[in-house]
Amino acid sequence: MKRLLYILLLPALLVAVTSCRPDPVTPDNPKEQKSITCLFERTLPEDVTDLTIQEELLTLHNITTGQDVEHKTLEEVKLAPGLYNLNYTANCRYKLKGVSMEGRLVAQIENLEVTDQTTDPLKLRLELRIVPTVQDFVIQEIFFTGTQTTAGRPYVGTSYVILYNGTDKVLYADGIAFCESEFNPAIKQDYKPDLRQTDFVPHAVYVVPGSGKEHPVKPGERLILCDIGIDHKATNPNAFDLSKANFEWYDESSVPTHQDFDSPTVPNLDKWYCYTRTFFILNNRGLVSYVIARMPVTKEAWLKDYVYDYSYVFVGTGNEAKRSSYRIPLDWVIDGVNCSVEAMHKWTILPERIDAGYTHCGKVDRDPNRFFHSVRRKYLGKDAEGRMILQDTNNSTEDFNPMVTASLIEEQGSAIDAKGTPCTTKTYDGVVPIDK
Asked: Do 203 and 241 belong together in one domain?
């Protein structure tokens, strides 16, 4: 009887003992993890004072799980063990060298590893960078130098310009004019009247067609305007493919021996004006300025009402020259870039409120090493949505990386020299490597 009772009680005891053991650690029953409190220290950029933060957002991206957590303040932020990317954005007012401005503060911390052994609290420094508020497109890149053939000769047709939507809203490219300057930074003249503080004088104007909302560009996306929108590798193995560009500038030449090529896949920009009777190519020495503008009038009205008659005296001869061109009010300009060559530079074409500096490909005129290179706006990081933030202080000397490998060459792995050496690097701006 006692033996039977013992046998009957044994299963019950086993159940009781088993039920007292802790549950095993499994994906469905994870071990309770330690949370680490974060203490943030903000480091301001040089020359920034009187900072007032209006709103801020910290996004914690758990690389392991793929989950994002947002905090609207830096207070009481906690992290469980894991591997994180942190993105910080703040809308703010501030003074930069005494000038009142509005913009965004941004900072990133990448591959932050938190473990059970991490010191609590965890002190983190946010190296803040100022990003002025962007309201419209900016010029992200200008590729004016072109490529070369295998024989080392300049190859015409691969020039392009990239416009970038760095705002948080959809922008429409309809009516955007891409313009190259008539005046040259290496040739200073006493133009009368001198309109440089109020107007831009172009010798080429090409406009994105459309009725107003036909060509949307989402936040973080780009618009590529090019010379000839074809796959140039078919005629020059050192070139690259432009057949997927958004638009091309095309000219109906009046000179039979010098004809342009009209791409069957890339739509044409509307040609409003160009100085040449043949076809337009970007100045491959970089001795011009460029602007993009929103044209609020029709082509016919602009050609009629915005004529610019001017004169200047040739230095050395004393002879007066009279010219007639057109003008674009600077109030229409949404971005501009001065290009020049250090050894040749005499003056800047755009006023300081549009561009206080200049960028370049080559420090001497006709630099033989300039080909395959472009000027690219500097990359500052990414916003909370993962979109690129580009530097824009209205000073191309500071805002652009000069003479770097063109982005389309990087993307397509095409040649970086006349020898046909393939490009093996990919960057955000010609300098900062793309995250792997």
From this structure: yes
Looking at the DSSP bridge assignments, the partners of residue 92 are 53, 103
Give pTM, 2 decimals: 0.77
Residues 199 and 228 in one domain: yes
Q: How do residues 257-299 score in pLDDT, each as one tens digit? A: 999 999 999 999 999 999 999 999 999 999 999 999 999 999 9
Q: Is the pLDDT of residue 195 over 80?
A: yes
DSSP string, 44-102: PPTTEEEEEEEEEEEEEEETTT--EEEESSSTTEEE-SEEEEEEEEEEEEEEETTEEEE
> Per-residue pLDDT tens for 86-114?
989 898 888 877 777 778 788 889 889 99
Cis peptide before 329 (omega within 30 of 0): no
Which residue range is the domain that position 228 belongs to?
137-412
- Asked if residue 211 and residue 126 are part of one domain, the reply reads no
- Shared domain check, 348 and 251: yes
Give burial (CB, 10 Å; 0-12/13-18/19+) of 277.
exposed
CA distance 335 to 350: 10
Q: Are residues 230 and 353 in the same domain?
A: yes
Judge if 376 and 335 occupy the same domain.
yes
Q: Establish if 27 belongs to a structural domain.
A: no
